[in-house]
Design a protein that fits this description.
By secondary structure, this protein is of the alpha/beta class. It is built from twelve helices and twelve strands. 45% of the residues lie in helices and 23% in strands. It is elongated, with a radius of gyration of 22 Å. The protein folds into three domains: 1-79, Orthogonal Bundle (Arc Repressor Mutant, subunit A), CATH 1.10.10.10; 83-161 and 261-286, Periplasmic binding protein-like II (D-Maltodextrin-Binding Protein, domain 2); 164-253, D-Maltodextrin-Binding Protein, domain 2 (3-Layer(aba) Sandwich). A five-stranded mixed β-sheet has the order 4-3-5-12-6, with helices on both faces. Strands 10-7-11 form a three-stranded antiparallel β-sheet. Helix 1 (3-15) crosses helix 2 (18-25).
Length: 286
């Protein structure tokens, strides 16, 4: 087994493509295929399969990912063994879209200025999935938008209550004092695992015995555009709609709900990348 095979494997996982991996690493596609085959022979297990022209990670590949990252981090550290004061390696961060777009850029920029030799890998997914990636060792730091978190295996840094707003189109001048509007117009929102979607729907049912008509979209950007066009209403973190509220594309309406959504930064109690993680935590908490 060679380091280059593991680098090729990790690049395929990141890109989802043999072709893109070959381009990034300067190999021919046949060379990439040969390295994967050599690695599979070494492991006595198949790593990838194909479905509808997409690469599917098999169980062996999923188990190999965290081990590969550990080896590659150690390899980078060995390469820089003479730079004793330089923090280096790769830090894998999992975060929901709302925090990735509207909170993390400033943190990442400041961290990169302080630690230019550290590579950051950012992935987006639902909060529950981010937490699972952290527990499974596929992420080093996970961010969540969630109420209070209780965990015996994770360290939770509560980043505070997050302002939430119910919004409609800025061109919509109707009076929304009547709560029945929630069953007359579509609730434009994202996936069912979303914590603030659940908070909104739970309040509707427990307080008013109402169920909204859901229009489920794939991104906050899409949700904002649809609501701004006058199709329905949404309930989102205020930080994600501040620009639209300022320029009048969206309008905030009052909704009687107890907000319990906090931003959280999570890490494992015992991480192989403790110095990297602690440095990122310090930068985030500044």
């Amino acid at each position: 087994m060679e380091i280059r095979q593991l680098i090729t494997f990790r690049t395929i996982v990141d890109t989802g493509s043999y072709t893109k991996t070959a381009e990034l690493l300067g190999y021919t596609q046949s060379a990439v295929s040969a390295q994967v085959k050599e690695l599979e022979n070494e492991l006595s297990a198949k790593l990838f399969d194909y479905s509808h022209r997409k690469i599917i990670l098999l169980d062996a590949a999923k188990r190999l990912i965290p081990l590969t990252e550990q080896l590659l981090d150690d390899y980078q550290a060995i390469q820089k063994i003479s730079q004793t004061d330089t923090l280096s390696g790769t830090l894998n961060i999992a975060a929901p879209e709302s925090l990735t777009i509207y909170k993390l850029p400033k943190i990442i920029s400041a961290f990169k200025n302080s630690y230019p030799d550290v590579q950051l890998q950012i992935t987006n997914a639902s909060c529950k999935f981010n937490q699972k990636k952290l527990i499974d060792g596929e992420a080093d730091v996970a961010f969540m938008m969630w109420p209070e978190i209780h965990s015996t295996v994770l360290v939770d840094y509560d980043l505070g209550l997050q302002d939430m707003v119910c919004v409609v189109s800025g061109a919509d001048k109707k009076d929304y004092d009547d709560i029945d509007f929630v069953s007359k117009f579509p609730f434009v929102i994202n996936e069912p695992d979303c914590s603030y979607r659940n908070q909104f729907e739970r309040t509707l049912w427990s307080e008013f015995h109402l169920r909204p008509d859901i229009m489920e979209l794939w991104s906050i950007g899409a949700i904002k555009n649809v609501v701004a066009s006058g199709v329905g209403y949404s309930y989102l973190p205020k930080v994600t709609v501040e620009q639209e509220l300022s320029d009048g594309r969206l309008r905030e309406i009052n909704f009687p709900i107890k907000n319990e959504i906090h931003a959280h930064m999570l890490m494992r109690k015992n991480s192989r990348k403790q110095k990297l993680v602690e440095s990122f935590v310090r930068e985030t908490l500044k």
